Amino acid sequence: MRQKQYRKTLTPSVFYILLALCNKERHGYEIMKQAEYDSDGKIEMGPGTLYGSIKRMLADGLIEEAYEKPAIEPEDERRKYYRLTDLGRKQLSMELDRYKNAIMLAKDRKLMPELELP
């Protein structure tokens, strides 16, 4: 399968899905809940947004289906688990770098005086 080059800037939904998958494989509902938790409730994805994003991310090679289900989960054949690919991990790292640079620029321009960064 040919991997596409993903766009340089991620949508908030894609960003939080990648964050949710950075440490472990997860199924859809777990991804949705983790994204909501990680964003302090600012990202609330319904099933349409979640699975539409997952479909595009699979096609773009950012994530892949994990065919072995975690042993700690009860058996549910309908659940699909997903994990990051190397491309997905690289894209997440690039996006985090972009955020870091934007925060440093905002600090340098004194746009956020309450921001205490080294």
What does this structure look like?
With 118 residues, this protein is mainly alpha-helical. The chain has one domain: Winged helix-like DNA-binding domain superfamily/Winged helix DNA-binding domain (Arc Repressor Mutant, subunit A, Orthogonal Bundle). The protein is 48% helix and 8% strand. The chain contains 4 helices and 3 strands, in the order H-E-H-H-E-E-H. The protein has helices at 12-21, 28-38, 47-59, 86-108; strands at 26-27, 63-66, 81-84. It has a 3-stranded antiparallel beta sheet with strand order 1-3-2. Helix 1 crosses helix 2. The longest helix is centred in the C-terminal third of the chain and has 23 residues, at 86-108. The mean pLDDT is 86.
Layout of strands and helices, then pairs:
Blueprint lengths: L11 H10 L4 E2 H11 L8 H13 L3 E4 L14 E4 L1 H23 L10
Antiparallel strand pairs: 1-3, 2-3
Helix pairs in contact: 1-2
Key features?
118 residues; 3-stranded antiparallel β-sheet; 4 helices
Low-confidence region ranges: none
Q: Average pLDDT value?
A: 86
What proportion of the residues form beta strands (DSSP E)? 5-15%
What is the CATH H-level superfamily? Winged helix-like DNA-binding domain superfamily/Winged helix DNA-binding domain
SSE sequence, one letter per element = HEHHEEH
* CATH C-level category: Mainly Alpha
The major sheet is characterized as: 3 strands, antiparallel
Q: Using DSSP, what is the number of strands?
A: 3
